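Lab meeting, item 3. Inverse folding demo.
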């Protein structure tokens, strides 16, 4: 207990008014920790958190952290105000790389704010800032525009397959990529992460490791399995843990192959360029077909959406299993699958 007489009512009221004007509550006074003696700069702190975040987050945020270094590298991390973050985001929008599917730099601004929120989350944990003094949390992300992606028509998908398999410097590889994505609805990261040890020939399954450190077994057709295995035997090395998809010279594929492929498809199919079609459109195409023919639960499992935010509470009770996904694959490809409960013709 403090020494001396208790404060009078007028002093208490004056203190209450002052704290209210400052936006400070009693909880703040109880929980606020003393500021560390030395607050790190952005250069120092980014080096530290880069060792703490998952590899997927590092790939996503590192380009934006590097730009923050160039802008604020020598400044203490608790110095920038929310307005400065807004101004920095606007500069990112104005200088964003123009791609075929650009949306005016909105994604660049959104990813910058996400990268700073990640940084300041760790700064809160380390006690360098308090939650109510987090400048990134006070900045709203740009509103996301409605996606322009949609399912391709059957004729459009046939055109994409034909051009991929008959043009370019490695049509065999590109045809395999199109078949892999249109049959599994996987993301680019899932395809690039494939290894020979991820192929289960007996059950026609491949193991997909995608964003959010998710991992699942995805049924595929016997035909696709044969082609993946032949590709691995022809271009891979003896290590089953290394990348499966490779160029003719044995180098593992990167995202640059996807850019090359869709730029070529756009030169041969003008609607691909006009509508800004990418590999992700094949995911939309397949999942739309699965949902129309097998229902939402199977489409959700087919997509690998198993998080709580992917479908609401009801999804807990209507979850589809691997065998139902295999049944959908059999109907999609017209080939029997060893795990399918039946062989429906849709």
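The presenter then showed the designed sequence:
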């Amino acid at each position: 207990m403090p020494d001396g007489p208790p404060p009078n009512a007028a002093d208490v009221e004056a203190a209450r008014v002052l704290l209210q004007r400052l936006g400070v509550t009693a909880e703040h006074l109880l929980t606020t920790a003393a500021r560390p003696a030395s607050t790190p700069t952005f250069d120092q702190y980014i080096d530290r958190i880069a060792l703490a975040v998952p590899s997927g987050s590092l790939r996503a945020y590192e380009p934006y952290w590097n730009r923050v270094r160039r802008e604020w590298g020598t400044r203490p991390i608790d110095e920038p105000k929310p307005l400065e973050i807004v101004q920095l985001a606007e500069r990112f929008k104005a200088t964003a790389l123009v791609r075929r599917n650009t949306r005016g730099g909105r994604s660049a601004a959104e990813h910058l704010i996400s990268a700073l929120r990640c940084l300041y989350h760790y700064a809160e944990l380390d006690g360098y800032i308090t939650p109510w003094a987090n400048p990134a949390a006070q900045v709203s992300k740009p509103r996301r525009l409605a996606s322009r992606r949609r399912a391709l028509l059957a004729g459009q998908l046939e055109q994409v397959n034909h051009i991929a398999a008959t043009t370019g410097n490695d049509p065999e590889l590109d045809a395999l990529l199109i078949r892999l994505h249109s049959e599994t609805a996987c993301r680019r990261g899932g395809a690039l992460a494939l290894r020979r040890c991820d192929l289960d020939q007996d059950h026609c399954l491949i193991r997909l490791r995608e964003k959010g450190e998710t991992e699942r077994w995805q049924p595929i057709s016997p035909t696709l399995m044969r082609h993946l295995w032949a590709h691995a035997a022809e271009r891979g090395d003896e290590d089953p843990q290394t990348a499966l998809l490779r160029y003719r010279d044995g180098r593992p594929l990167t995202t640059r192959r996807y850019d090359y492929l869709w730029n070529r498809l756009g030169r041969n199919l003008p609607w691909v360029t006009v509508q800004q079609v990418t590999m992700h459109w094949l995911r939309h195409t397949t999942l739309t077909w699965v949902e129309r023919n097998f229902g939402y639960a199977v489409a959700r499992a087919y997509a690998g959406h198993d998080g709580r935010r992917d479908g609401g509470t009801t999804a807990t009770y209507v979850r589809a299993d691997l065998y139902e996904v295999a049944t959908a694959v059999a109907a999609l490809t017209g080939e029997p699958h060893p795990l399918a409960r039946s062989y429906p013709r849709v």
